[in-house]
């Protein structure tokens, strides 16, 4: 992504945009970090059980739901993009209508996942080939957590709607409540009651349902306000529905490619044995923590860029990109330094199994490098989501996935698990390059003067 032709910000302009970015990114970073913290607790409580297969069971089960739920992450992305643009244009009626359309779609898709739970789990274990013990544990996890599908997708929509309105403080409250409840129930069910992997799944199900109830309570004004301009014909407007479906389908394809890449990573690690699978699952918590932290700035640029499009201001678009990307890079460097300095101590928190710890330490250098490579693709994702340029996101991700699979084919036979991690870094770099090639055209398409 290059903005070298954009004018430098004056000191007062930088200070103003600095505040705008942090008012969004700050609460979102705190909220986002609580999400991988939840995954970390899941891994830690399993890692202190007597067999590494428990970590593998959660890792495989989590990958299945990552594929399912992240595959529908377009619900949050498209909702935030359309909401930000409607608010930037001053159309409050469309802000509420966007929520209603997306919620109807989310609940429908969630119920469909429950109906198809049998074929989904069968297909999952055709794609992945874990040991028999890991598969049995993953099936137990799946059988409980699948019932959270409508709640998980509804949460995506409400969070995207709040983000599009720049209500980051409320997002923080909701995410901390949801993930805090989940973590507390994890510890109660697994450590307290000894329910094992089923306790982890049940904790997630209860927390997701409670999260939706709390989110609807906070968003009740949108549901209770009687707006005569919100009619069935407005909600079912053909042009708006077509735009919604077009963006959603493209982002869904993009997201499925991303989740396939991560699922493929886990599957190839599983082929190398339960010990490699468990060590990679521990290291992935590093990846998720840094990703969710940097994603706060991606969400900030997503909203600010979408708002600038709604106001038809290319100057504001450029400033949002410049300031948010600067802070994202600073956080990437800080993440790399933390992993370098105390990475081994962090690994020890996840497992007391010596073999898992030693294996994870061997591959720790990849986690030190990862934030510096992946930060660029996160930022570009936010820019393209906010401007609802979903076709470019789809095309860039498909190309990056092909590069990643080719890298795996070439590098894993020669380098083993190091080759698998190197392939993942190649994937992140390919995402940066492919989206970066589209960026100049996107910037020129933003209406309004450049400064």
How would you describe what is shown here?
- By secondary structure, the protein is mainly α.
- The chain contains 18 helices and no strands.
- It has helices at 11-47, 53-71, 74-88, 92-115, 117-127, 132-145, 149-164, 168-192, 196-218, 220-224, 232-235, 238-271, 274-311, 314-350, 354-362, 365-386, 390-415, 417-445.
- Helix 4 packs antiparallel against helix 7 (149-164) and helix 17 (390-415) runs antiparallel to helix 18 (417-445).
- It starts with 10 loop residues before the first helix and ends in a 6-residue tail after the last helix.
Strand content: under 5%
Helix content: over 70%
Number of strands: 0
Unreliable stretches: 1-12
Structural class: mainly alpha
Count of domains: 1
Per DSSP, the total helix count is: 18
């Amino acid at each position: 992504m290059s903005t070298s032709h954009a004018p430098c910000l004056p000191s007062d302009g930088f200070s103003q945009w600095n505040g705008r970015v942090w008012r969004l990114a700050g609460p979102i970073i705190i909220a986002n970090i609580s999400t991988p913290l939840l995954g970390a607790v899941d891994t830690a409580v399993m890692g202190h059980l007597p067999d590494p297969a428990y970590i593998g069971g959660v890792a495989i089960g989590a990958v299945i739901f990552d594929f399912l739920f992240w595959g529908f992450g377009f619900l949050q992305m498209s909702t935030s993009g359309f909401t930000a643009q409607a608010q930037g244009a001053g159309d409050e009626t469309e802000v509420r209508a966007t929520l209603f359309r997306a919620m109807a779609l989310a609940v429908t898709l969630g119920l469909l996942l429950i109906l198809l739970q049998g074929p989904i789990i069968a297909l999952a274990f055709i794609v992945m080939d874990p040991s028999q013990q890991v598969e049995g544990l993953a099936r137990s996890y799946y059988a409980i957590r699948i019932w959270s599908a409508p709640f998980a997708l509804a949460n995506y929509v409400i969070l995207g709607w709040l983000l599009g309105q720049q209500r980051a403080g409320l997002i923080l409250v909701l995410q901390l409540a949801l993930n805090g409840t989940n973590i507390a129930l994890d510890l109660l069910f697994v450590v307290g009651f000894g329910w094992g992997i089923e306790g982890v799944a049940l904790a997630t199900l209860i927390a997701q349902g409670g999260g939706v109830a709390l989110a609807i309570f906070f968003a009740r004004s949108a549901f209770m306000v009687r707006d005569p301009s919100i009619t069935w014909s407005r909600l079912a407007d053909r042009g708006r529905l077509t735009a919604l479906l077009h963006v959603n389908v493209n982002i869904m394809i993009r997201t499925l490619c991303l989740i396939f890449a991560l699922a493929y990573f886990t599957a190839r690690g599983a082929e190398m044995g339960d010990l490699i699978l468990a060590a990679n699952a521990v290291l992935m918590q590093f990846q998720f923590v840094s990703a969710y932290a940097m994603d706060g700035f991606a969400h900030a640029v997503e909203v600010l860029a979408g708002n600038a499009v709604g106001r038809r201001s290319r100057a504001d678009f450029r400033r949002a990109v410049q300031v948010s990307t600067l802070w994202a890079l600073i956080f990437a460097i800080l993440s790399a330094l933390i992993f370098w300095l105390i990475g081994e101590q962090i690994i020890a928190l996840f497992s007391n199994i010596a073999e898992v710890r030693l294996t994870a330490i061997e591959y720790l250098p990849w986690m030190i490098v990862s934030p510096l490579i992946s930060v660029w693709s996160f930022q570009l994702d936010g820019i393209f989501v906010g401007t609802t340029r979903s076709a470019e996101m789809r095309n860039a991700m498909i190309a990056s996935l092909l590069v990643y699979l080719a890298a795996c084919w070439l590098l894993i036979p020669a380098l083993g698990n190091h080759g698998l991690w190197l392939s993942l870094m190649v994937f992140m770099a390919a995402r940066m390059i492919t989206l970066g090639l589209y960026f100049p055209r996107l910037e020129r398409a933003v209406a309004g003067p450049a400064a």
